[in-house]
Amino acid sequence: MKIIQYKNEREDVKNQSPKSMHSLLMLGCCSVATLFNVAIAQEVETKKKFDETSALEEVVVTAQKREQSVQDVPVSMEVLSGDLIEELGADTGFDIVKYLPGFGVDDNNEIRTTTLKTRGIGTFTNSIGLQSSNLIVVDGEVLPRQSMMNLAIADVERVEALRGPQGTLFGQNTSTGVIHYVTKRPQLGEFYGSAKAELTEYNGRQVSSAVNLPINDNWAARINVQHGEQDGWIRNEYPGGEDVGAEEKSGIRTQFLYDNGTDLSALVRMDYSERDTNCCSMVKTEISREYGPKPVVRIDDGVVTAAAYNEIDSEPDYNVFGEPVTARNPESNYGSVENTGLSAEVNYDLANGMSLSYLASYRDFELNNSSGFFTFKFPVHREHFGGNESVEVIQQELRLSDFDNETFNWVLGAFFHDTAGQRSEITDGCVGGGGASSRGVIEDGVMIGCVSNASALAFINHYSETGTQDRSLLEADRNLSAGDFTADFTNTAVFGQLEYQITDRLDATLGFRALHEKGSASFDALWLRPPSDGSGMETFDEVLALSESDPSLIRNDPEGAKFSDSNTDFIYKAVLGYDFTDNIRAYVNYSTGYKGPSYFVTSNTNPADAEYFPTRPEQSTNFEVGVRSRLLDDKLHLNLTYFDMAVEDYQVRAQRIVDEDSNTIFAGYVNADEVRSTGIEADMVYKLTSDLKVVASYANYEATYEDFADTPVNCPSGTLADRCSVIGGRNVFDQTGLPVENNAQEQALLTVNYNREIGSTGWDANLRTVWRYEGDFTPSANMMAQEFDPNADYDVLDLYIGIGNDKLRGNLFVKNVMDESYNTFKFADQWGNQALFYPRDYSRYFGASVTYMF
Question: By three-state DSSP, how is residue 612 classified?
Fold first, then answer.
């Protein structure tokens, strides 16, 4: 089985795996060095004349706060052009990630808990008080919540994906990586634009337009708008529920540019987007009839029995229907996002050659969602952590720079970032939790009541003994819990980067950031109980209203808790670069990163445990050795990187013991002492002819818990029982040497683009293929304990065909040409239940678009 490799003793894993990995990497590096020595020799000997028509176009990025060729940036990074992003049909920030080897996404049941990872390391963010290990940036504006990646993607110039810590130049909380979206800016003196309409299967339809407007010699504006709708693609067997995946989205972005033509420019951006969706759902492959809270009181034609929900009307599963299928109650499964932003950027060239830049931004992010835990065909949940999440972000950055020198270039800056978050949520369900131990009452296939577990057993036993129903034995009970939480983070810093040309071939870069971060959080909770003479089907709002005159309906109203923390840190990077020739460059990069502490605040949080907040900050280190090359008369760009990245005090979601004597358990976040990821990354662009270009990216890494032995968390037992010990009467699980779960440790992307003019007609044809590969995924602890295979490897081939001229262009595309069914995430719990996440292109589908340019 695939999981056997992870069952070695901890000592074997620690002592053998890294050595094997490093040996392979050293062998690979030696081979690459030999290859480049040959290339250097050939370049020196031949000195072929440069051919402008067949050379690759320069890819310009701003990864170091200035415009540079991507080949000159000493960081492992991948760049996607805006044209490619538009053709790929990427709708949200998360859609982009699957085309970035070295990055990954853990999909989930709801839009607020999708997790972004770099080199296998990331933070599962489902609480307003959790910060991400990976930074999302749009035009220099830091988006602190991963759920903000539900932003509309349109009019993008490029995406710069930087692997490894980047905190010296990019905001806060960049302990593992950055994805930077750079949008198209207004152009002076030019009127042009485009309008596009697209149709896809699943009744998908989308329209978008962008226009550049010259106002006068010094002013220009750019406006882009979009609207899209689609039906769901996962079959929903819940009575009256629409298929899952349906969405409607709209967005508008307006920019105004002023440029005096000499030394001053200013840009103001305003944007608004919204999205409504019933995304998402995990799909079960096999159903257990005993699964779920039981006993359920089942009454059929007056006969009372004890049952489970699936014994009455089973959940659907993939194996029976032969397609992704679920049962999602629309009342408890919904999601909507509103995203409003305003930013200003001012650049001023000083007389002495220096430049002064100022960026200020404000963003208001509103998310309203609920995601029922169960997929039964009964309204077990009406709300599951359902509610509104509001985040306000203010950012200011001031930079002074001088990049026009032959020997010495530098940038110095000051940074301020404030995030104020608030979330209100409700759980309204016939389930345990919130002080309740409730069970459903199903009569003739309809849920009519929700009662306590004890009264359900008493009612069933009475009927078994007497053959008669005594409904007075049933006591209404229901999980009616709510919470209101806040989390505020204020980050101030000074930063800088100095670049010095030591000799004609040797250069050095030093970067730093000195930061101070203050965090605070609060939470209030309220637990209610339904009226004793009720059915247990009353809503939270109904019971809350009744509790104003009947305090007995208040099960628990604990005193709210507030807590705060502050941290100061200094992170840095040091880089040495060497040009072997004008076209072959190598660098060594050592950098550190920081991610602030996190506060796990939800309606599950017990205010009495406030002393265990927050988690400690994450501290990361990254060692990289890279080669950047331009070969074959600049027709081939080949970049190779070896990295060793470690994160100390890595913040992990887990259950832990907070009081050994009372056996009190805390469900939240803990710090793993160290997690490490090592591997190689390669990026290539090859222009074979003036019409044919190949772009490839590859990542191979191993992410493991280097030291996770001291923190007590729940033990999965099974085949991992030898890793468990007992403290305070409860198992403690040692994860040292185990893999970070659900990582495809080998990833590849290959695009082939062919353009051909059609005679002298002014028309041209384009053919593009995009192939993605994700290797076998690493298993979770539950999978290893129960000997389940992890998520399988998959590859997906997409095809795009276009024809057009300067005014009109038509495109056809086929997603998943080979119709290979696949899933991107696999979940297994401690009871043996498994579920899979299927993306929209799990099966082949078609689409077409028409674009008019003016």
Answer: helix
- Determine which helix (DSSP H) or strand (DSSP E) holds 304, and give its type and residue range: strand 303-307
pLDDT digit string, tens, across residues 781-805: 989 999 999 999 999 999 999 999 9
Which residues in the chain land under pLDDT 70?
A: 1-54, 125-126, 150-152, 603-612, 655-667, 710-712, 728-731
CA distance 771 to 759: 30
pLDDT at position 606 is 64
Q: What is the pLDDT of residue 610?
A: 54
Local structure of residue 583 (DSSP, 8 states): S
- For the beta carbon of residue 302, count every other beta carbon within 10 angstroms: 11
Contact 780, 741 (CB under 8 A): yes
Residue 85, CB-side half-sphere exposure with 13 Å CA sphere: 26
Three-state DSSP class for 64?
Answer: coil
Between strands 141-143 and 134-138, the pairing is antiparallel
Report residue 453: phi and psi, to 5°: -60, -40
Q: Tell which residue, 690, 708, 709, 780, has the closest CA to residue 742.
A: 780
pLDDT of residue 832: 80
3-class DSSP assignment, residue 43: helix
- pLDDT at position 48 is 37
Dihedral angle sign, alpha carbons of residues 601, 606, 610, 614:
negative
Q: How many CB atoms lie within 10 A of CB 529?
A: 26
Q: Distance between terminal CA atoms of the chain?
A: 58
* Cα gap 43→45, rounded to integer Å: 6
In the DSSP assignment, the letter for residue 625 is: E
Predicted pLDDT at 584: 96
Sheet with 834-837: strands ordered across? 282-284, 834-837, 825-828
Quick: pLDDT tens for 288-337: 888 888 899 999 999 999 999 999 999 999 989 999 999 999 988 888 99
Residue 350: strand, helix, or coil: coil
Beta bridge partners of 593: 620
Task: List beta partners, residue 59.
Answer: none
Tokens describing residue 748: 């590849």
Q: Which of 116, 114, 182, 90 is nearest to 337 (CA)?
A: 114
Tally: H helices and E strands in the chain:
8, 45
Q: In 10 A of CB 780, how many CB atoms?
A: 23
- CA quadruple 137, 138, 141, 145: dihedral sign: negative
Phi, psi of 741 (to 5 degrees): -70, 155
Question: How far apart are alpha carbons 581 and 504 in whole angstroms?
Answer: 10
Handedness of CA 375, 377, 379, 382 (dihedral sign): positive
Phi (first) and psi of residue 377, to 5 degrees: -90, 25
Hey, what are 404's tokens?
């026009």
Mark residue 443 as left, alpha or beta (left: phi above 0; alpha: psi -120 to 50; beta: remaining): beta
- Tell me which H or E stretch contains 513: strand 506-528
